[in-house]
Amino acid sequence: MFNRTKAREFTAFTAIAVAGLTVAAVLTGPAAQAAPAAPKFLSAAELPPHASSDWIAGKVTDGVPDELRLCLDDVFPGYDSRYRDFRTDLDTNARQLTIVTGTAAKAKALADRMNKEIQACAERIETDPEIEATYKGYGSLPVEEGARVHGLHTEATWGATDVRLLSVGRDDKTVTVVEWAQMGDFGDAPVAAFKKTTTTAVNKLY
Questions:
Q1: 77 class by beta-carbon count within 10 Å (0-12 exposed, 13-18 middle, 19+ buried)
Q2: What is the CA angle 68-72-73, rounded to 5?
Q3: Which of 12, 43, 78, 86 has a 20 to 30 A CA-CA distance from 180?
């Protein structure tokens, strides 16, 4: 009788232990695993080199930088976004915006719309009679699901002249926008270096 009692106790203990292990396995399975890491941002060293100043990187911040609203303001409602600003000691500045959508299809649609909005931006800017704007396309880049590079030059009647390089890239369900800007015209824009920066930005998303 003693041995049977011990055997029953051992069997019950074993059943409880197995059940405990099963619950633990469920809790530590795919559904309980940590969410995917947030997309990584560019570092200051990954921006186009400046001839006389180092880049300084700001903190990653929720929201949208005001500078990108010039061409993309109508795109942002409904999306959560994060960005990082960069600056030099002179007039050159830059920024990167990252948006994680729900699906790859939504990300593709967003990237396509952003590219169209940037391509049409010069025409919209010229509704201001005091500003002349010119768009230049610099083609696509073969990185992840693709990236496209744009140029925008504006000149005001009071003498201000500025050039911007913008790119839109995508990796799965994440879209990133990179912008570089300074005083000058297209001849002052570091297109090759900016394409390298864009490729790095898309590769760092995941």
A1: exposed
A2: 90
A3: 78
9 has pLDDT over 60:
no
The domain spans of the chain are: 1-33, 36-203
Task: Compute how many other C-beta atoms are within 10 angstroms of the C-beta atom of residue 58.
Answer: 13
pTM of the model: 0.83
What are the residues whose beta carbons fall under 8 Å from the beta carbon of 89, sequence distance 6 or more?
A: 53, 54
Of 180, 186, 191, residue with least CA distance to 138: 191
How far, in Å, CA of 39 to CA of 37, rounded? Answer: 6
Fold adopted by 36-203: Protein Transport Mog1p; Chain A (3.40.1000)
Residue 106 neighbours by CB under 8 Å, 6+ apart: 173
Q: For the chain, what percent of residues have pLDDT higher than 70?
A: 83
Q: Which amino acid is at 205?
A: L
